Amino acid sequence: MAEVIIGVDPHKLSATIEIVDRQERLVATGRFDTDQRGYTAMRSYVRTFRHRLWAVEGANGTGRPLDQRLVEDGERVVDVPAKLAARVRLFDTSHNRKTDALDAHSIAVVAVRTPGLRVVHPDGELKALRMLADRRDELSRLRVQTVNRLQRLLGELIPGTRKRDLSALQAKKMLAGVRPRDVAGKTRRRMTVEEVADLVAVDAKLKAMKAELKAAVLARGSHLMDIHGIGPAGAARILADTGDVARFPTRARYASWTGTAPLDASSGQQILTASPARGTGG
Which of 68, 86, 151, 247 could make an S-S bridge to 118, C-beta 3.0–4.6 Å? Predict the structure, then answer.
């Protein structure tokens, strides 16, 4: 039996597939939930096609959970960049309207027409690093929220007092001399003490997370932290988001993907360089 390409348009709760042959003729289509039952049904559905290649859009984004499950189950998977799928959809339909079925078909067509797409490989260590980086970001946001609540409560307890970079120790010292007499004041002070305890806890988690991220980055043999200004969190995020750097054929392609490649932009008689991520600079 000839090889077929299974184009997958992945979402959090569902995945739409379009199966085409090497002549881009539609063979089958389907839509499945991404829970275990839906995933099992999808693999059973395609089992009759012994020679199959999965093409998943956004293997480093929305498609990551699905493509890793497929790879771990022994399936062959390639990563289809969203830009290529959008281009095929536009050229083949003369419009850029999106439906799940059209997206899945475009993804499959890209895999047929494009040699050298990145093959997805299982990488448990990178997956763990990405989880740690995400957790660190969540803890950082939680700390900001905790400090904001603490600032508000302290401002109500001690009017006119506000520390720009508030720490748990500073908050404790500020609370030491506050002894409200009314019920509202006592309740506010108790809530402030609870927020201080939450800040102490999240700071301890962030400290432990920093050490774990540092060890994980070093374990991958990365020297990113040797660069001034890049710490464990920044290095982990770069590694996690980049994934397999070999998927970028040149340095210029990687710079374009990160949004740091300079672009020519005219301003009057002066030619400036601009970065999509950083604005315009001389």
Answer: 247
| DSSP for residue 268 | T
% of the chain residues with pLDDT over 70: 90
DSSP-derived pairing of the beta strands 52-57 and 4-10: parallel
The structural domains of the chain, ordered by start, are 4-113 (3.30.420.140), 124-242 (no CATH), 248-281 (no CATH)
Average pLDDT of the residues in 52-80: 88
Take residue 244 and report the two structure tokens written for it.
């397999």
The Cβ-side half-sphere exposure at 147, using a 13 Å CA radius, reads 17
d(CA 161, CA 182): 20
CA distance 254 to 245: 8
Alpha-helical segments (H) within 158-182:
168-176
What does the DSSP 8-state code read for residue 250? S
